[in-house]
Amino acid sequence: MDYNYRHSSRRLTIFAHFFGVLAFILMLIWLLHYRGGLQYDSYDNYDRVFNVHPFLMYCAFIFLAGEAMMAYKTVQASHHSQKIAHMVLHLSAFILGVIGISAVFKFHDMAGIEDMYSLHSWIGLSTFCLFGMQWLFGLFSFFSPAATPETRMRVAPLHRAAGRALLYLSICAALTGIIEKFTFQRLKNEREARLMNFMGLSILLFGIFVDLSVALARDSSPPY
């Protein structure tokens, strides 16, 4: 029975990777073909500066965060290697997130738009801060020599639950961001609108399959 759960988990990771890559491709098509490209240091086209934001935030807090969760629970490797991959992927996500956050604040300054006025921005910045706290919590709880095995076992369920919640918060931020951009641009291009809808759906399905694969994974190594 345990084998069946592991087998199901591995199959679910295939779907997760499919929708994760699909969302990545759709986002690139959207930003490059319909939105004019990406350029953080652009001085004459602030829309290109903005476009860095959704791209990096998806790559960081959804795709890399999801990959980090699957790397720890579904990849066949030593427990230490799983922990290192999990930590490094999350650290990479946080670094990309810093750049993505700074891009949208830079865009607001260039376009004369007020900061932190929307539900999307509230959810997004809260998720960013909680993500950083979660990473530090994991670093000190699972990599610090001062943390005892008993402490690690006690905090592991909380750490796992918080990670899954943060993934869904990130997806919520992404979907509200897509809706906000859709409304702000008053899109009349049906092809672009459909592409954005499929992109949002792919992001949501990626998160669902990541969560299911992690939930069904059975790891014989200790949970810390």
TrEMBL record:
Its cofactor is heme b. Residues 15-215 form the Cytochrome b561 domain. It is a multi-pass membrane protein. Signal peptide: none annotated. PROSITE patterns: CYTOCHROME_B561. One of its GO terms (molecular function) is transmembrane ascorbate ferrireductase activity. It is an enzyme of class 7 (translocase). Keywords: Electron transport, Heme, Iron, Membrane, Metal-binding, Transmembrane, Transmembrane helix, Transport. Its EC number is 7.2.1.3. Pfam families: Cytochrom_B561. SMART domains: B561 (SM00665). The chain crosses the membrane at residues 12-32, 52-72, 84-107, 119-144, 196-217. GO terms for cellular component: membrane. It is found in: Membrane. This is ascorbate ferrireductase (transmembrane).
